[in-house]
Amino acid sequence: MFKFLKDKLKDTISKFSSKVEESKETEEKLEKQPEIKEEVQGVIEGIEEIEETKEEIQKKSTQKEIIKKKDDLIEDVEEKKSFFGKIKEKIITTKISENKFEDLFWDLELIMLENNVASEVIDKIKDDLKSDLVDKPLKRGKIEEIIKESLRESIDSLFINQKNFLKIIKEGKKPFVIVFVGVNGGGKTTTIAKIANILKKNKISSVMVAADTFRAAAIQQLEEHGKRLGIKVIKHDYGSDPAAVAFDGIKHAEAKNIDVVLVDTAGRLQSNKNLMNEMKKIIKVANPNLKIFIGESITGNDCIEQAKQFNEAIKIDGIILTKADVDEKGGAAISVSFITQEPILYFGVGQEYDDLKEFDSKEVVKSLGL
Ligand SMILES: Nc1nc2c(ncn2[C@@H]2O[C@H](COP(=O)(O)OP(=O)(O)O)[C@@H](O)[C@H]2O)c(=O)[nH]1
Ligand SMILES: [Mg+2]
Q1: Which of 98, 184, 239, 357 could form a disulfide with 267 if both were Cys (CB 3.0 to 4.6 A apart)?
Q2: Which residue ranges of the chain lie beneath pLDDT 50?
């Protein structure tokens, strides 16, 4: 994941910083006054010497008569230091004006757009970088580090902190109901099987509910996972009311003292309005503890748009991004939490049951080479 973005970011940051490093504005001003430049260089070296003398005087002077001399000398040193300090700062630092920043940020903006980072997120990153960089004294030789640090902090702050998923379940009511939503083919059924597998490994019992009654194959697919994992699947006939299946699943869990109910749902894009109404009905009947949006990482801005729509319709509580293993861009992963203000819980990283990776923002930032 992020392979493409990481490489491009590296190049762009490096280009950005060398352009800032090359900024000659301050030096040009000093070039026009060579005598000042020379004097400043001399005094910078001199200041260190004076500092040493100051320390020595402070150590040795215990007698009254030299105390006055010492104070005068220290005052003199402080004065020189502050005056020459300012000039020294100008030599070793540079500044970027707002116009120049806009110009330089353009490359960064472009590669983020190419890698599916949502435009609201690009704006936020731009604001963060601008407040860190524009009109601030930036140490020469350290510009790349400063830009990276700023970007690192900005991207890290895009993620809503998630609580530990298993802990939430263990502390929640029983049966703990989770409804999974998202468009067709996004990976809902596969991810539900992966979650059931994690729960089983943690000695938490579960039942899977085939509330995607829109396609006969969807019910069979869940049954197949149930057989392989040894987990009960509650189903009705193809075409029946999904809310009724969800209701049955919860009743079953209550009767059998099962910890968690995992509700699979249909996600047909072609009739968005019906889908959302059906979804709302399932949510009303099942009254879930968590509503998790499943989105395909590789679909980039489409994934973000879907997450927004589901969030507006049913208020999601968390996100799982699938197919992260085949997504080299990663823009959806960077954007989806900020856009929905909900945490990413897991990344799907393959088609096997164990291919579910806990989300860690620090790891994302590291994968970006920041
Ligand atoms: N590479 C990869 N494929 C996945 C992942 N998750 C799901 N898939 C595949 O995506 C396809 C659609 O998944 P499915 O669970 O049926 O999606 P649903 O329609 O939302 O239920 C299947 O072929 C899955 O094997 C993942 O994390 N990585
Ligand atoms: Mg499915």
Answers
A1: 184
A2: none
